[in-house]
C-alpha cells in the first residue's frame, strides 16, 4: 500500500505535508509534494482527504484485495466521495455525507 502524487495536479499547498502523521511527504525544489519512502506509508489516507486538488491516489494492494486498484477522494460541500478504480477500468464510488456520518 502506498500513495502516488500526481505532480501535474499538485499546486504545492502543503496540506498533505502537514497531514501526514509519519512526516513522509516533503516538497520538492519545484514546490510540489512527493513521498520519499513509499514503503513507510501505512495507508491512513489523511493526505488524500486533505488534498483539494485530487492530486493523490492510493494503491490498494493485493493484501487488502485491491489487485492493483486505486482509491481516490473528492470533497464537494458536505459530501465526501471515495472512488475505487480497478485495473480493468471498473469504477465504484461511495458517497458519505459528513453531516450524517455520526449516525453510523
Ligand atoms: S495537498 Fe495536494 S495539492 Fe497540496 S501539496 Fe499535497 S498533493 Fe499538492
Ligand atoms: S496515507 Fe497516511 S501515512 Fe501514507 S503518506 Fe498519506 S498521510 Fe502519510
Spell out the blueprint of helices and strands:
Layout: E1 2-5, H1 15-19, E2 25-27, E3 33-35, H2 46-50, E4 56-60, E5 69-76, E6 79-85, E7 91-97
Antiparallel strand pairs: 1-4, 2-3, 4-5, 5-6, 6-7
The structure holds iron/sulfur cluster (2 copies).
One iron/sulfur cluster (SF4) binds next to α1.
Concise summary:
The chain is mostly beta strands. The chain contains 2 helices and 7 strands.
Structural write-up:
The protein is mostly beta strands and 104 residues long. The chain has one domain (2-103): Alpha-Beta Plaits (2-Layer Sandwich), CATH 3.30.70.20. It has two helices and seven strands; from the N terminus they run βαββαββββ. It has helices spanning 15-19, 46-50; strands at residues 2-5, 25-27, 33-35, 56-60, 69-76, 79-85, 91-97. The strands form two sheets. A five-stranded antiparallel beta sheet has the order 1-4-5-6-7. Strands 2-3 form a two-stranded antiparallel ribbon. The chain starts with a strand and ends in a 7-residue tail after the last strand. The mean pLDDT is 91. It binds iron/sulfur cluster (2 copies). One iron/sulfur cluster (SF4) binds at residues 3, 19-20, 22, 24-25, 35, 41-47. GO terms for molecular function: 4 iron, 4 sulfur cluster binding; metal ion binding. Residues 1-30, 31-61 form the 4Fe-4S ferredoxin-type domain. Keywords: 4Fe-4S, Electron transport, Iron, Iron-sulfur, Metal-binding, Repeat, Transport. Pfam families: Fer4_7. This is 4Fe-4S ferredoxin-type domain-containing protein.
- Spatial strand arrangement across the major sheet: 1-4-5-6-7
The share of residues in extended strands comes to 35-45%
Radius of gyration: 14 Å
pLDDT < 50 stretches: none
Domain 4Fe-4S ferredoxin-type: 1-30, 31-61
Protein name: 4Fe-4S ferredoxin-type domain-containing protein
Organism: Lachnospira eligens (strain ATCC 27750 / DSM 3376 / VPI C15-48 / C15-B4)
Keywords: 4Fe-4S, Electron transport, Iron, Iron-sulfur, Metal-binding, Repeat, Transport
Amino acid at each position: 500500500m502506498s500513495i502516488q502524487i500526481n505532480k501535474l495536479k499538485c499546486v504545492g499547498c502543503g496540506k498533505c505535508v502537514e497531514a501526514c502523521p509519519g512526516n513522509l511527504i516533503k516538497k520538492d525544489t519545484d514546490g510540489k509534494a512527493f513521498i520519499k519512502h513509499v514503503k513507510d506509508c501505512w495507508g491512513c489516507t489523511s493526505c488524500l482527504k486533505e488534498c483539494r486538488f485530487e492530486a493523490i491516489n492510493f494503491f490498494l494492494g493485493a493484501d487488502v484485495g485491491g489487485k492493483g486498484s486505486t482509491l481516490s477522494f473528492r470533497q464537494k460541500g458536505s459530501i465526501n466521495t471515495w472512488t475505487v478504480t480497478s485495473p480493468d477500468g471498473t469504477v465504484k464510488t461511495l458517497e458519505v455525507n459528513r453531516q450524517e456520518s455520526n449516525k453510523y
